[in-house]
Specification:
Layout (H helix, E strand, L loop, with lengths): L7 H8 L24 H23 L6 H18 L7 E3 L5 E3 L3 H16 L1 H9 L5 H12 L4 E6 L19 H14 E7 L9 H4 L8 E4 L4 E3 L5 E3 L4 H16 L16 E4 L2 E5 L9 H18 L6 E5 L3 E10 L2 E4 L2 H12 L8 E5 L5 H8 L5 E6 L3 H10 L3 E4 L2 H14 L14
Parallel strand pairs: 3-4, 3-13, 4-5, 13-14, 14-15
Antiparallel strand pairs: 1-2, 5-6, 6-7, 8-9, 9-11, 10-11, 11-12
Helix pairs in contact: 2-3, 2-7, 3-4, 4-5, 6-14, 7-14, 9-10, 11-12
Bound molecules: magnesium ion.
Magnesium ion binds next to loops.
Length: about 450
Amino acid sequence: MRNPDISPSDMLENEKGFSLPTKQYSIPDIDINLQPIRSFKDLFHLKALTRSIRAPIVKNIFSARVINLRSIEALKNARRSLEDVYFRDYDTSMIQIDDLHSINVDLSYEIRELKKDTYYLEHGEDYFIDYLSKLYNKFDQHVSKGLEFLDNLNFNCFITDRDGTTNNYCGHYRSSIQPVYNAVFLSRFASLCTENPIFITSAPLKNFGIVDVSVNPDNVFIYAGSKGREFLDLDLVENRSFIDPMKQTRLDELVSCVGELEKQEEFEKFFYVGSGLQVKFGQLTIARQDVSNSISEEESLNLLQSVSDIVRDIDPEGSVFRILDTGKDIEIILTVDGQNGSKDFDKGDGLKFIDNRLNLRLDRGPHLVCGDTASDIPMLEAVLEYTDDVYAIFVTRDTELAQKVLTICPNTLIVPSPDILLTVLGVAALTIKRKKGRRASGIFI
Ligand SMILES: [Mg+2]
């Protein structure tokens, strides 16, 4: 007979799947209560919590398991906490760096993406797409055109950039956690319509890199960081390309000298805005501006000058480093030996390194390449060296860049925003007739 003191909910609690091997699917019971966000540390902690909820939500969706409503509530509270800072007084939405310094923050990415996620989870995909369509001009036309462009194809390689291409730009890399809807659309396409789906980003792979901001199920994507110099394959094995030890020593010296700048009051903020300081494999990046231009031009140029001086001190001959200034980030990249002397390592070199290790059969198309800036063009050019059977989708409103991509690859579609690309891929995967689609383990569909 049952003990009357034990309530049905206690029994459930006691029996909760402990004998079942389903622990990997459990969504942690983290109550993200309404909490004050006063520092970047608070912000990044909160965003890390949303990742630990979002990742198992995605895993459950792909395994045809229903998620609990408490997790949606936690995501809502995370959003409310951010809105509390952001909308309290728009002109002074400040986050403190320390007791003395604070900086204006743009939290619109974080708020918007959390809102989309809860809408997606509460209303389902059809209403969600309808919601997205209200955010962009000519959304339906772009999506229809995209579906026509993909033409029910199965792709061998799906090679894509992340930030600005499949992910909306975020003011702070560390808090640019991939949303649930984004992971569902992308992973569905990658699993069902492609053999070798690969992210190539210039951000690091780990600590803190693409792996730390992604919530796609494991074994779906190959993640390549530092423009492809390091990658995690589908068996989660880490691969790294060779770096000349002499060059590595100079890079270590550079990292230490640039790191010292944080101690100077006028440079401290650059360690928190935009990309912040990122130490990559074969590369160092430091932000000099963020997406909402919160740094004055004068301060931004001062940092560029100081960093350039450090580089010149360490590499007076200019043979070890290349400085690439995107206007937002200063990238200092170790050179590699090219046809005409040393050149900077690009995403095309990265793709060739991955191919060298994994044998992607690049001669066998069709391939799909997606990007959003000129730094993504080398990966498109690299694929075209092997076959003409290449499709490209670029996310840009820059007509000059669009024209350049079209010249290199006539089979190119231009779309204006990452959400449109995601919708095209997510919907295409629902209608494409599967041929040799690859399914990662644990993926039900
Ligand atoms: Mg990009």
